[in-house]
Amino acid sequence: MRLNLFLARAGAGSRREADGWIREGRVRVNGLPPAGMGPSVDPLRDRITLDGKLLVWKKEHRYLAYHKPAGILVSRRSQGGHPTVFQALGDRVRGLHAVGRLDLPTEGLLLFTDDGALAEALLHPRTALSRLYRVWVAPVPAAQAMRTLRGGAVIEGVEILPRRVILEGQERGLGRLLIEILEGKKREVRLLARAAGLHVERMLRIQFGPIRLGALAPGAVRPLTQGEVRSLRRSAGIPDAFPGPMGGDTLRPATRSRRRGR
């Protein structure tokens, strides 16, 4: 790794600023001035200082957003002949973990990262991170069904209470709802709909915390921006960190035939 890139990744400043520090003789590699402007260093072995202060290598985490299609499992292992997200995405998510789950028929936003501390904090109940779903139900909910949805229900001893429920309109004979929840309990939106006498025909997660699905196509994956990662960290109550690149270029949708690898 080039020395100026190490200095930037360690959070000291930009690569242009790093070049200036190297020229000014403020940087030492293993106690010695670097040879030339662009020497290579080993961030795990070399001792690198700026103005006598030891710089610590910060691992470059990766953060990706994926539009999960229906019929794909959020699992490492295939079940019932259904492909998994890891099979669908292959090398693009090698070394990464899914942040939470979406059940088999649910579509929409799913995050991947190798930042274990952030993933754990986002999923912890005390974080109360918002999940926003667009849900198509049958029949179109009447007033009583809407009262049940908004008032919540206790199902199998577990309270399910949405933060908000909005009837957006009707579409092809179905009611189109916007449902926001603050926890990721298993199938809670579907169970709540059932308690209101409704059947979920389609369910799409359009937002997870501050991250929006937007125009990301089904099966496509994109890196989160630095601003999005900072917003996630703030939502999880984690101090901001110097961000490196977030994971690469936007990629085309993955097809189910690619096997490499709510």
Which keywords apply here?
single chain; 262 residues; alpha+beta; Structural Genomics Hypothetical 15.5 Kd Protein In mrcA-pckA Intergenic Region, Chain A; Alpha-Beta Plaits; 3 domains; nine-stranded mixed beta sheet; three-stranded antiparallel beta sheet; 7 helices; 14 strands; 26% strand; disordered C terminus
CATH class of the largest domain: Alpha Beta
CATH architecture of the largest domain: 2-Layer Sandwich
Mean pLDDT: 87
Count every helix, treating DSSP H or I runs of 4 or more residues as helices.
7
* Parts with pLDDT < 50 across at least 5 consecutive residues: 242-261
Largest sheet: 9 strands, mixed
Number of strands: 14
Q: What would you report as the Rg, rounded to the nearest angstrom?
A: 23 Å
Shape: elongated
Oligomeric nature of the chains: single chain
The tally of structural domains comes to: 3
Write the layout of secondary structure elements.
Elements: H1 3-9, H2 15-23, E1 27-29, E2 48-50, E3 53-54, E4 63-68, H3 85-89, E5 97-99, E6 107-113, H4 116-123, E7 131-138, H5 143-151, E8 153-155, E9 158-160, E10 164-171, E11 174-181, H6 188-195, E12 199-208, E13 211-212, E14 221-223, H7 226-236
Parallel strand pairs: 6-12
Antiparallel strand pairs: 1-2, 2-3, 4-6, 4-14, 5-6, 7-11, 7-12, 8-9, 10-11, 12-13
